[in-house]
């Protein structure tokens, strides 16, 4: 653990695709320390490597070179089995397209990762009840995903991502498919999680979303080109302008 008590660290991270003429440096020498409890936004033009960076940080992809550390433990060189366990227990993912299991109810979607982590059905049910209440969907617990609005589906996905109390919550364009009202719901939820000490990394194209973060890093061509700590300038969700437009 370093002086910032970084929960998540990237060291000279490289991820390439293809070879020869078609070689792409999706992530090209990224160093990053995310302190515990920080809400970090990642922005940059399409194709600059934001999703790839998020996948590397959460162990969904392995780097071509460099290191990823989670809570003081190096994760990029773990076995497949250990990495799968880490993803289930220590990292929460939220995606633009929700990726809920369509055959399962909202509650069952949240229960699933708890069961996969080896806990009892009773524990899983209790956790799902708590989390769905927290995201304001206790009255939708038995609904299937297609019976929910996009914003409701994303709130279920956030509840699912939080099911095993992850060290970090990683979100890839979480509001990209949502209208303004649903975006605000999701941001208020993130704000509550942040207030409770949750570490969040959020990839976004939306400056209004980034304005609510503690820190904004900008990427270009696989590199970090700017790193701004908002400190006192971060905006509470309801203080951000431009939602009407
Ligand atoms: N599996 C792959 N094979 C080949 N190239 C890939 C692969 N995955 C990503 N890339 C390339 O790596 C670069 C970074 O992609 P990435 O999806 O991380 O960008 P992004 O910033 O998240 O883009 P967007 O904002 O459009 O989602 C792009 O040039 C992309 O085409």
TrEMBL record:
One of its GO terms (molecular function) is ATP binding. InterPro entries: AAA+_ATPase (IPR003593), ABC_transporter-like_ATP-bd (IPR003439), ABC_transporter-like_CS (IPR017871), ABC_transpr_LolD-like (IPR015854), MacB-like_ATP-bd (IPR017911), P-loop_NTPase (IPR027417). Coiled coil: none annotated. The keyword Iron-sulfur does not apply. Residues 8-244 form the ABC transporter domain. Pfam families: ABC_tran (PF00005). Gene3D superfamilies: P-loop containing nucleotide triphosphate hydrolases. Keywords: ATP-binding, Nucleotide-binding, Transport. One of its GO terms (cellular component) is plasma membrane. It comes from the Bacteria. This is ABC transporter ATP-binding protein. It comes from Streptomyces fuscichromogenes. The lineage of its organism: Bacteria, Bacillati, Actinomycetota, Actinomycetes, Kitasatosporales.
């Amino acid at each position: 653990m370093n002086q910032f008590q970084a929960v998540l660290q990237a060291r000279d991270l490289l991820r390439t695709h293809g070879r020869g003429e078609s070689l792409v440096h999706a992530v090209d020498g990224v160093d990053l320390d995310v302190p515990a409890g920080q809400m970090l936004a990642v922005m940059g033009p399409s194709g600059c490597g934001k999703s790839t960076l998020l996948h590397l940080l959460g162990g969904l992809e392995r780097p071509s070179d460099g290191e990823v550390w989670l809570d003081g433990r190096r994760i990029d060189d773990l076995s497949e089995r250990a990495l799968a366990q880490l993803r289930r227990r220590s990292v929460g993912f939220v995606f633009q397209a929700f990726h809920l299991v369509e055959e399962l109810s909202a509650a069952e979607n949240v229960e699933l990762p708890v069961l996969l982590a080896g806990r009892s059905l009773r524990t899983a049910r209790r956790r799902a009840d708590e989390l769905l209440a927290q995201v304001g969907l206790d009255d939708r617990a038995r609904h299937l995903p297609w019976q929910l609005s996009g914003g409701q589906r994303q709130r279920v996905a956030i509840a699912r991502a939080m099911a095993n109390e992850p060290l970090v919550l990683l979100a890839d364009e979480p509001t990209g498919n949502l209208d303004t009202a649903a975006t605000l719901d999701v941001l208020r939820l993130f704000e509550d999680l942040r207030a409770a000490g949750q570490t969040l990394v959020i990839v976004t194209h939306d400056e209004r979303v980034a304005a609510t973060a503690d820190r904004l890093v900008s990427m270009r061509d696989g590199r970090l080109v700017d790193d701004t700590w908002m400190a006192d300038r971060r905006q509470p969700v309801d203080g951000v302008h431009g939602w009407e437009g």
